[in-house]
Amino acid sequence: MSMYGVIHAARRIANGPLVRPARLKWERQQFLAPQNHAALFGVYASFAQARHDLPQENPGFHLETLSGQYVNIRIKRVFEYDYPVMRWLEKAFQHGATRVLDIGGSVGVHYFAYGRYLEMPAELSWEIVEVAEMVDIGRRIAQERDAASLKFTTDLNAAIDAGCHDVWISAGAIQYFEDAHPADLLRRTEKRPAHVLLNKLPLHDGEDYVTTQNLGQGAFSPFHIYNKARFIESIEALGYTLWDSWDVHELSLHIPGHPECSFGAFSGLYFVDTKQVQPDRKARPVAQAGLL
Ligand SMILES: C[S@@+](CC[C@H](N)C(=O)[O-])C[C@H]1O[C@@H](n2cnc3c(N)ncnc32)[C@H](O)[C@@H]1O
């Protein structure tokens, strides 16, 4: 038998009815181990179903010590996937945007890290929606650094209902909120933002589903994965144009035992309401340019 034949046979056995249950039981034990930070497990229809399979003593994101990598690293530096966001954010500022809503912006990581590269408007207001533990740390850092533009809230609904933001940003975050699909949030707000910047999103060609993620330190969270075409269409249906999109190659997704649910790169999307603003006269939206 060729090497390919051996691998194929081994895969068939591993996924066959005799071995698969034991393999998935082992994979689940691995997933639950505290050191397996960022590991994923399971395919569920809802957050409720996913929570049912997680340990009962689970703090989720409500753990101060989860702030470590944000306070020590992300607040200080940007990564490759941040550049498209910085490009469009800078353009938005040049077109007069001053009020930013940053959903899941941690302790102010984007505000501080992007601030080293971007000219921020003098009258900037940058509001972050976060869990109480990150809000406390973020407020303390903002005070220490004299960052008067930075505000924090735990109340996503109130921030959305205020409807006073020019730009919404969310990076690697909305997938952890049970009910924060951007199209639903946008539908609810009377004065919609001209710019919507979504980064590090788990989008794929298959169906929507929910998985669970090990956050480290004994904490876990359910996690949405969305069908890419439907996700984009739901925002376009509200009058937005998808102006740019990019792959986030640093983040991929593997669900043990579910190759059909796994994919190689996360996504970044920039939507603009062209009735409010034309972001760049030289460029055309990514879909019109046939680049999607
Ligand atoms: C993976 S981190 C991303 C942080 C940052 N945006 C970045 O790109 O580095 C996800 C963030 O979403 C926040 N988050 C998750 N669920 C939340 C919820 N229900 N309400 C408020 N914040 C939430 C977490 O506290 C965490 O800071």
Structure description:
This protein is of the alpha/beta class and 292 residues long. Helices cover 33% and strands 22% of the residues. The chain has helices at 3-15, 20-32, 47-52, 68-74, 82-94, 109-115, 132-144, 156-162, 182-188, 228-236; strands spanning 40-44, 99-103, 125-129, 150-153, 167-171, 195-201, 203-204, 209-216, 219-227, 241-248, 266-272. The strands form two sheets. Strands 4-3-2-5-6-11-10 form a seven-stranded mixed beta sheet. Strand 2 (99-103), helix 6 and strand 3 (125-129) form a beta-alpha-beta unit. It is globular and about 65 Å long. The protein starts with a helix and ends in a 20-residue tail after the last strand. S-adenosylmethionine (SAM) is lined by residues 61, 74, 104-106, 109, 129-131, 134, 171-173, 176-177, 200.
Defining key terms:
Rossmann fold; 22% strand; 11 strands; four-stranded mixed beta sheet; 292 residues
Can you lay out the helices and strands and say which pair or pack?
Layout: H1 3-15, H2 20-32, E1 40-44, H3 47-52, H4 68-74, H5 82-94, E2 99-103, H6 109-115, E3 125-129, H7 132-144, E4 150-153, H8 156-162, E5 167-171, H9 182-188, E6 195-201, E7 203-204, E8 209-216, E9 219-227, H10 228-236, E10 241-248, E11 266-272
Parallel strand pairs: 2-3, 2-5, 3-4, 5-6, 7-9
Antiparallel strand pairs: 1-8, 6-11, 8-9, 10-11
The chain binds S-adenosylmethionine (SAM).
Residues 61, 74, 104-106, 109, 129-131, 134, 171-173, 176-177, 200 line the site of S-adenosylmethionine.
What compounds are bound to the protein?
S-adenosylmethionine
Question: Distance between termini?
Answer: 42 Å
Radius of gyration: 20 Å
The string of secondary-structure elements, in order, is HHEHHHEHEHEHEHEEEEHEE
SS elements, strand count: 11
Top-tier CATH class of the domain at 59-205 and 227-272 = Alpha Beta
Q: What fold name stands as the CATH topology of the domain at 59-205 and 227-272? A: Rossmann fold
Give the fraction of residues assigned to helices.
25-40%
Spatial shape: globular
Q: Which structural category fits the helices and strands?
A: alpha/beta
Mean of the pLDDT scores?
92
Taking strands numbered 1, 2, ... along the chain, how are they ordered across the largest sheet? 4-3-2-5-6-11-10
Beta-strand content: 15-25%
Low-confidence stretches: none
